[in-house]
Amino acid sequence: MSSLSLALRDSSTMLRRNLLHVRRYPSLTLNLLLSPIVLLLLFVYIFGDTMSAGMGGGGGDRSEYLAYLFPGILMLTIGGTTIGSAVSISMDMNEGIIARFRTMAIHCGSVLVGHVVGSVIQCAMSVGLVGAVAVAIGFRSEDATAVEWVLAFALVVLMSLALTWIAVGMGLSSPNAEAAGNNAMPLMILPLLSSAFVPVNTMPGWFRPVAEYQPFTPAIETLRGLLLGTGIGHNGWLAVAWCLGLSALGYVWSGSLFARDPK
Amino acid sequence: MPLSVMPTSVPHGSSAAVSATGLRKSYGDKTVLDGIDLHIPAGSVFALLGPNGAGKTTAVKILSTLISADDGQARVAGYDLAADPQGVRAAIGVTGQFSAVDGLITGEENMLLMADLHHLSKREGRRVTAELLERFDLTEAAKKPASTYSGGMKRRLDIAMTLVGDPRVIFLDEPTTGLDPRSRHNMWQIIRELVTGGVTVFLTTQYLEEADELADRIAVLHDGVIAAEGTADALKRIVPGGHVRLRFDDPAAYRSAAEALREVTRDDESLALHIPSDGSQRELRSLLDWLDAAGVEADELTVHTPDLDDVFFALTADRPGQTNQPNRPNRPDQPEEAAR
């Protein structure tokens, strides 16, 4: 068997294992879905009137703010789901079965690849669920073409991949699941500090760099552009660059952490 | 008996399943293994015996490619550990000290996972899974999550998973630690069956009885070096003579007996005295006469011929001068008190 087909076969075996875990124990994933959905409902129904009054010179209604909020909530969903990935890989590393995998003649990267692909699939499913909630409460994208929808989905997947590799590194560098959950918190906090809830230009001046120079803002602005027809500008390339950069960083980091001798 | 079922991979000029020279490993400034040499013939059972912390698990981790040695060479199943770890991995099966099963999925799914990772066809995987689950008496529990299994069941599943790829060399790191006596005997039976199938078993244990029961050769690991190696009988010959053990219920009687008798070793914790003796009728009679004369009446008298415990304690005692006066304290790492 060639090394590529070995890698594919072992990785898909590991993927099946991880998906089986998710199917058997969906509570972790569902818990992580709770916060984006709660935030979505909170901002639309509780803060919605005030938030939309501040938009576009005032006079907007709740559905306008829902549309503004939607891309950010999707990113928040991805961030939250990847925290789950950090926790689950950290838990997994403390299981004896990983030691067993290491002493078997399998492709060395398959354990991590299985986790990463599993996490990206989870992210896509979570985004689908949260998206369905948004549609149920009135989100509509009127002028997005099929191509734009496909590009939006592609960005969601790319962002999931990037954040998952980072989360895997965070999980591998944490001694236990609790620490992994804490260490991965930035994945959920960063979107809160992005343009997810309010436009960057309404933020205090000293804070704007925090919102601007981070991966979520360009990704959110790109999604907005694709789904709502606002201007994308350089945000598209910026978002893709962030994703590729984070993926590469997370991949190298996780790979070297995994290659270390286990304790 | 054929030593290997795969003639192409038999290394020339060697029937050793495991051979190692000068294995060293240290963590920080703590030396765990300080130059280990091993030669284990194919098809035999080898037991690495030692107290907790002696480096047994480290040795298994190195030989099973889990961690790398700081120094030394080793070949496992004919493959060089450093140059061809994948070759080694393809030939070995490892059951670690802590159960290496996936608790979140069922026993059957664990087995099928192993079959997939060994690249068996679906049909073959199902056949092997059913066969091994049956053999290890797990068919009934096959559809339950492994996390709900008892300790003995987990170990059986663990070993069943290890056997999926038909390994030629099997590492078992303390396979019976934490098992009840019945499960322990079941495990021994399993290990014996493995060997009749021609595989080589590398076993670590802290139970001397276990090494005595199972192993063709035993090495005693102490402070990172092999203190002695040989068959159980050869090791027992290292320690001359047995002893008679006198146990007392009453501490006062124990103390006065200890003062009255001179050539004894004291075990204050269990109120017992050990008197060197070869266990012959003549010696026993003179010993009893001596006890009568000294007015000592023990509540229990037992005769011990030398066993691996004596060897073990003699070799792993912290005071090298005491090796010909075996003592059997409850805790070997505590220096025993000897009254002279």
From TrEMBL, chain A:
Mainly resides where?
Answer: membrane
Q: Which residues form the ABC transmembrane type-2 domain?
A: 27-261
Superkingdom of this protein's organism:
Bacteria
Q: Keywords in alphabetical order, please.
A: Antibiotic resistance, Cell membrane, Membrane, Transmembrane, Transmembrane helix, Transport
Mind telling me which InterPro entries this protein's record contains? ABC2_TM, ABC2_TM_bact-type, ABC_2_transport, Nod_factor_ABC_transporter
PROSITE patterns per the UniProt record, alphabetical: ABC_TM2
| A Pfam family the protein falls into | ABC2_membrane
According to Swiss-Prot or TrEMBL, what is its membrane topology? Answer: Multi-pass membrane protein
KW Ribonucleoprotein (keyword) present: no
Query: What family does the database annotate?
Result: Belongs to the ABC-2 integral membrane protein family.
The protein in question is named: Transport permease protein
